[in-house]
UniProtKB/TrEMBL annotation:
Family assignment from sequence similarity: Belongs to the YjdM family.
Annotated ranges, domain Protein YjdM C-terminal: 46-113
Source organism, top-level taxon: Bacteria
Listed name of the protein: Alkylphosphonate utilization protein
NCBIfam families given in the database record: phnA
High-level lineage: Bacteria, Pseudomonadati, Pseudomonadota, Gammaproteobacteria, Oceanospirillales
UniProt cross-references to PANTHER family, sorted A to Z: PROTEIN YJDM, PROTEIN YJDM-RELATED
Gene3D superfamilies reported in the protein's UniProt record: 2.20.25.10, SH3 Domains
Amino acid sequence: MSELPACPACNSPYTYEDGIQYVCPECGHEWSAQAGDEALDTGLEVRDANGNLLADGDSVTVIKDLKIKGSSQVVKVGTKVKSIRLVEGDHDIDCKVEGVGPMKLKSQFVKKA
């Protein structure tokens, strides 16, 4: 039997699997089984332009027109980006922008949707 991780919210050892998620019966916190171990190991904390904490899978909105390097395309202000993934580095958001394709964004140019 594999050992399940403790709850990241309350550190309860009584977590259980529910499909593709882990669930804590004590505090009710749910988190992804695939990204759960990775998020705990990295300790990555990324905040948007307003100071809100971002997490994998969040949706964000672009707050400034962003020129795409090496192209004449522009990501317009107000563009909504779904299902972001947080990575380390200067461009700390990995995502797929509709109509443009996969790219990396800086968190200072987005706000949580």
